[in-house]
Amino acid sequence: MNELERELRMTRVDPAAAIERLRERADRDGLLDVAYATVESPMGTLTVAATPTGLVALGLPNRDPEEVVADLAARVSPRVLEAPGRLDEVRRELDLYFEGRLRDFDLPLDWQLTGGFRRRVLRQTARIPYGRTLSYKQVAKRAGNERAMRAAGSALGSNPIPIVVPCHRVLRTGGALGGYGGGLEMKEALLRLEGALE
Amino acid sequence: MTELPPFQGLLDEHSRDVLGFLIAAVGPQDAEDCFQETFIAALRGYPKLEDDGNLRGWLLTIAHRKAIDHHRARGRRPLPVAEPPDRAAHDLEPRGGGVWTAVASLPPKQRTAVALRFACDMPHDEIAAALGGSEEAARRNLHEGLKKLREVLT
């Protein structure tokens, strides 16, 4: 190596470290509106995102992480950064859940992506215990309108935080699976994991 | 309201380019500080940004302004504010020895290629991504840049 190149190499700058420090500083300065990360699960890759308030979105494996993140930029804030450290607790609880070692998630949630009747339906859904199921009609009733079964179904279909808000625990009257954003196979697998299906 | 892409995308696509510019503009010792200032300022202003047609240009303009602030803070001759960052920056006076002043005087692509190759040890394909061209073009810029540096420095 010649003298010139040696001199140019004298002081090093590490781009990855620079970006990591930027992430930390953005968080400290309150500029990280949405932090996201991906979590590997036995059912595929999940995309998780949190605001300073709490977990705001969970993308199931059939959704492209990029699409989830672009959606958050449009609906929450464009100040979106990949920041796995901010989602350590979410990852930890999801890992335990898929191992069958965690029954109740204890995570702060940010409900801003849902409102009105939809939010009431989802809040009621969040209270269904592990391994138990309710019908769409029962959930509609708990949310304050027994006859709004269709609206309840659509609220569950729009659930921004599936798994943690366990919309998979809501079935048709009589026990048919109904629908699921992540595909019926996944709904069945989650219910089986929880021992709610034979 | 315009729908802005996630800020992470700006980091993925343009952070190398910005860092390369700053290494050449202020020298490798101070480049990271200016890099932080640039992206924190960008994050602050991002939600209010109305035209997302040229995000790279927007970031480089901020970086250029931060380089000027940096030179001012160090009591050096301020740079002309109007100078677009994509032009050769003859007035930049980076710290880190005469060699970096010579790098700063190179044409923009050669300057960035040399900075990223030697200060960041970046492989050619990543330099190509930063310059927005082929790997072949990145090698050529690097080669030309080094050749010119040797001429200037001897």
Provide a descriptive summary of the structure in words:
The complex is a heterodimer of chains A (about 200) and B (about 150). In chain A, helix 5 (about 115-125) crosses helix 7 (about 150-155). With about 200 residues, chain A is of the alpha/beta class. Chain A is built from eight helices and six strands; from the N terminus they run ααβββαβααβααβα. A four-stranded mixed beta sheet of chain A has the order 3-2-1-4, with helices on both faces. Chain A has helices spanning about 5-10, 15-30, 65-75, 90-100, 115-125, 135-140, 150-155, 185-195; strands at about 35-40, 45-50, 55-60, 80, 135, 170. Chain A is elongated and about 80 Å long. Chain A is about 40% helix and about 15% strand. The longest helix of chain A is centred in the first third of the chain and has 14 residues, at about 15-30. Chain A folds into two domains: about 15-100, Double Stranded RNA Binding Domain; about 115-195, Orthogonal Bundle (Arc Repressor Mutant, subunit A), CATH 1.10.10. Chain B is an all-alpha fold and about 150 residues long. Chain B has a single domain (about 5-155), classed as Up-down Bundle (Butyryl-CoA Dehydrogenase, subunit A, domain 3), CATH 1.20.140. Helix content of chain B is about 65%, strand content about 0%. Chain B has helices at about 5-25, 30-45, 55-75, 100-105, 110-120, 125-130, 135-154. In chain B, helix 6 (about 125-130) crosses helix 7. The longest helix of chain B has 20 residues, at about 5-25. Chain B starts with 6 loop residues before the first helix and ends with a helix. The chains are: A alpha/beta (about 200), B mainly alpha (about 150). The interface of A and B includes residues 21, 31, 69 and 81 of A.
